[in-house]
Amino acid sequence: MLLRPVAASAIFLALTSAALAHTGQADASGFAHGMSHPFGGLDHVLAMVAVGLYAAMLGGRALWLVPATFVSVMAIGGALGIAGIALPYVEIGIAISGVVLGVAVALRLSLPIAAAMALVGLFATFHGHAHGAEMPPDVAGIAYASGFMLATALLHCAGIGLGLLAAKLGERGWRIAQAAGGAKALVGLAILAGVA
Fold first, then answer.
1. Whose CA is closest to 176, among 122, 127, 105?
2. Neighbours of 172 (CB within 10 A)
3. pLDDT of 90-135, one tens digit each?
C-alpha cells in the first residue's frame, strides 16, 4: 500500500519517455516537457516531496488539502509565468521554500490546516511561475501545464508515502523523517546562498 505512490511515479516516468518519442505532436511534446520539468531541479524535487511529507505529518484532512492547495496555486503561478507576467524574487522564493518546508518537517511544526495551506500556497506561486516562465515556446501550454502539475502531484505522493511509512515505524520513523527535513533545509540554504 505504501509503495503505490512510488510505483505510480515510476510508471508515469516510463510513460513520459514514450511520449518523448512523438516529437512531431505538440501535445505529447508539451506534456513530456511539463512532466520532466519538476524533476530537472533538486530544489523543485525536494520541495515537492517535503510538501507531501509535511502533509502526512499533519495527517487528517491535511493529507490531501495541503498538496491539493499546492498544485492548484502552482497552476495559477504557472499561468502567470506562461503569460510573461513578472513575479519578483522567484528563484529566492523557491530556495526559501526548501528551507522553510525542511524546517517544518524537521521540527514537526503543527500548524492549523488553513495556515499550512497558506504557507504551501505562497511557495507554490513561485514554483508555478518558474515552470510557466521556462515553458519552451514550441509546446502546447495546456499540455505542458498538465505535465508539470501531474509530476508535482506524483512527487507529493512520494512524500506522502514516506510520511505514511514513517508513521508505520512509529517514533523512530518520524525521527528519520525529521532528519531528512533538516537535511532538506540545509540543501535549501545552500541553494539560497547560490541564488541570493
1. 105
2. 9
3. 999 999 999 999 999 999 999 999 999 999 999 999 999 998 888 8
pTM higher than 0.85: no
Q: How many CB atoms lie within 10 A of CB 162?
A: 23
Residue with cell 517544518: 104
Among 26-40, 72-86, 134-148, 166-180, whose mean pLDDT is lowest? 26-40
Q: Where are the domains of the chain?
A: 4-195
Are 71 and 164 spatial neighbours (Cβ–Cβ below 8 Å)?
no
Q: How far apart are CA 133 and CA 91, in angstroms?
A: 12
Burial (CB count <10 Å: 0-12, 13-18, 19+), residue 77 = buried
Cell triple for residue 103?
524546517
